[in-house]
Design a protein that fits this description.
Chain lengths: 233, 248
């Protein structure tokens, strides 16, 4: 008697037949991608490594020496010459980007103040074609002279900026309120002076001068005699 | 004949060794290093222009004029790099004094609009100024000036200067300033990888073209300081490498 074995159930219509080779193929793709990435990485990184730099901390690097040193000056002499260039008494340092002024002596800060320096902006007079750049100058200057209750001779740009006509009489240009109680003159029309606009201290709002608050200005005016060095950067 | 050639070779070798020894002695003499630095600093200070002094031991970059430090840029980290093609010998600065040769772009300059002040504001301003002149408390405020309007529109330190930049100095030095200290986020890491790959490929390109590969100094400092450093640069500004006194 022959036995009738049950036949296996037919696969469902929506079920894909299982292919035995599929896992092998997938892993070979992955391997291929990894290999490709590795080769690409080597091609990219190896030349960069070869042409690259070896870095060490700068403290471990030997300083250079100048080959043609003049034999006449010894260390003390050179140090004395550099010291002779430095200011002896108080000096002023103006950081025009941070709008800070420091009154200094022997490298020590005696007083630090919030100031206003130049905008760096440009004004153009459409009528005459003249142009002004309102920037606080960089470099070293000296306090040429000082004035208490200074008056300002309004220059042309102030009229242009405010859309006002130039006065016919030169005396009409005098403004004795704008500069505050004190002014230290640095040459070329630049000053350290007071302001009616203390609300703007800390902002770059001026036409190149350095504006200070009343209390700080008084302290600087008293401490810095004519001839004081002013470093502006 | 053979003997004389041999003795000539020996004498050349001895001379070479002596030269190398004396050069090593010369390079390691702190007094000579100090004297070299001071001589260069004196020359720079006499010019009455700003110059930078790099102090590797701190590390810091000092902005100086006439021998006076006006601003110190404290560095988080500073590294000295030499091309792999230069070999593995002793690291030495290429010179004591360097001059900037990279061009510094002119800053963006906003244009001031001519003020249109109405009569009411003019009267108000005049009254406030009179009160201040008399030492009285003014009623009301002065109207906004052109400078104040500009300052509000264009804050100077508001990202107008770059945070990461490379400066080419002569002789053969590149100062790379990175305003991203100890940034550990993925973006900063990727940027650093990109820089490393770039400088490697550049180095390889120079080597293949038989050109000199400049020494690199990479300094890391806070972003706002990096921007500030960019702004203090003058064309051809000098960079000196500080050497301490021998008895320090």
């Amino acid at each position: 008697m022959s036995e009738i074995l049950p036949s296996p159930p037919p696969p469902a219509a929506d079920q894909a037949p299982v292919v035995a080779a599929a896992p092998v193929r997938r892993s070979s793709y992955v391997r291929f991608i990894i290999l490709g990435l590795a080769c690409g990485g080597i091609v990219l990184v190896a030349p960069a490594w070869l042409g690259g730099y070896r870095y060490v901390a700068v403290a471990n690097v030997t300083p250079a020496v100048t080959a043609d040193l003049a034999p006449k000056n010894d260390l003390r002499q050179i140090e004395r010459k550099i010291a002779a260039l430095q200011p002896r008494g108080v000096y002023i340092v103006v950081d025009s980007a941070q709008n800070r002024l420091r009154l200094m002596k022997n490298g020590q800060v005696l007083r630090e103040a919030l100031v206003s320096a130049g905008t760096g902006a440009v004004l153009t007079d459409a009528k005459s074609g003249r142009t002004w750049v309102f920037e606080t100058p960089r470099g070293v200057r000296t306090v040429r002279y000082k004035r208490q209750n200074p008056c300002w001779h309004r220059p042309d740009w102030d009229y242009v900026e405010n859309g006002e006509p130039f006065p016919k009489n030169d005396a009409d240009r005098i403004d004795c309120a704008a500069l505050g109680d004190y002014a230290l003159y640095l040459g070329d029309g630049y000053m350290i002076h007071g302001t009616l606009y203390e609300r703007s201290l800390g902002l770059s709002v001026t036409h190149g001068c350095v504006r200070m608050g009343a209390a700080d200005l008084e302290a600087v005016w008293k401490a810095a005699p004519a001839g004081t060095k002013v470093y502006l950067y | 004949m053979k003997r004389s050639v041999y003795s000539l070779r020996v004498s050349f070798a001895v001379l070479g060794l002596l030269a190398a020894y004396s050069a090593a002695l010369l390079a390691a003499d702190p007094t000579l290093e100090r004297r070299s630095f001071l001589t260069e600093e004196l020359a720079a200070a006499k010019l009455k222009e700003f110059y930078l002094v790099f102090d590797p031991s701190v590390p810091a970059l000092d902005l100086k004029i006439e021998g006076v430090v006006v601003h110190r840029f404290a560095l988080d980290k500073a590294e000295f790099g030499q091309s792999r093609f230069a070999g593995t010998g002793q690291r030495q600065w290429p010179a004591v004094s360097f001059s900037l040769v990279s061009e510094i772009p002119e800053p963006d300059r906003p244009q001031i609009e001519i003020q249109q002040v109405d009569e009411a504001d003019k009267t108000q301003d005049a009254s406030v100024k009179r009160a201040i002149a008399k030492g009285q408390q003014p009623t009301g405020e002065l109207s906004q000036t052109a400078g104040e309007k500009i300052a509000r529109l264009y804050q100077k330190d508001d990202g107008t200067a770059p945070m990461t930049f490379a400066l080419q100095f002569e002789p053969d030095l590149v100062l790379v300033v990175r305003g991203e200290p100890r940034a550990t986020d993925i973006g900063s890491r990727m940027r650093r990888i990109k820089y490393t790959l770039q400088e490697g490929w550049q180095g390889l390109g120079l080597w293949l073209r038989n050109k000199a590969i400049a020494t690199r100094v990479v300094v890391y400092l806070p972003p706002q300081d990096a921007r500030r450093l960019f702004k203090v640069l003058d064309p051809q500004i000098k960079l000196l490498v500080y050497a301490p006194s021998a008895n320090r």
